[in-house]
Amino acid sequence: METTPSEVYMYDHSPPTVQDIQKTKYCRLTLNELLTVVCATLIPITLGVYTGITSMQEQQQADEMRQFDLSQAAELKQQMIYDKFLDDMYKLEKDGYLADIKNPWSFANARYRAAHRQWDITRKTDALQFLKEHELIGKAKPIDKHTTKAVVDIIRLAELNFDNIQLTSATGTLNQLNFDNVVFDRVSMINAQFSFANLKQTSFNHARLNNAMFLDASLANAHFDSTDLRSADFGNSDLTNTQFLNVDLSTTKLTQTQIEQAIFFNSTLPNGTAIATTNRTTTTTAPTTTTTTTTTAPTATTAPTATTTTTTTAVTTTTAVTTTTNNNSLLIEIISVTV
Description:
Pentapeptide repeat-containing protein; Pectate Lyase C-like
């Protein structure tokens, strides 16, 4: 029987060629060959990921170290500027440049302002305390009211920036931080905080005190003329005879007691009441003396005698405050003193 070529091909049992062997190995990989391929692929990927993570960690550590070095350098620079300022003040005082005859103390103010512009908020606070302790600011006013000599601060704080400053007593209620008589006119004190501070007779005229906080502070006889007090909080501070002139207090936190303590002129209270004028009147009754003389008629055995009785009327001083609002007039009697 004669066979066709196709039948011969189907039943061909001749040994496979090299091409057939290579084709079979490519399609049918053994387990070892498969693992070899996978490892050859994953190892570079793993090494790349590890290298990337390590590089990121090293970069983060380097950034942290660099930031630490920068902060240390900045701190050292701040301290050097502050120490240089103290040394300058010492030399100026030793050479007599802080004496009264050196008014207006140009050298002292120039050195302070140059240093102030470079300081952080911590050094600004320390410098203010230094100036107050050495009476370069906030000089005590003379007790003698008849003196005509004006008290002038050696260092002028006007037009300087004290934003975010915190003037707080280290001992709380035990000892108040003393800043009485200091002139903070025309300064910026946004977000400033005064805690347990003595601010009696302190002036904040034309200053910016947005969001400022006065906590347990004494502001007796302080002055706020045309001061920006938006969102300021006076807490439970003492405002006895504190003067508010041309001030908008509509967003300021004041208690009723503080409103009764303070003096307002051309200002708006937190409740929206507009106060036009405030007049403080004092009535004094002068002392009067009455003398009565009684004469006793003579008798047979006694000579005439005279008895004199002197009566002095006490001095009464009455102080009152008349506040004129846009609605009516309110008379508040502040104090009545009898001597």
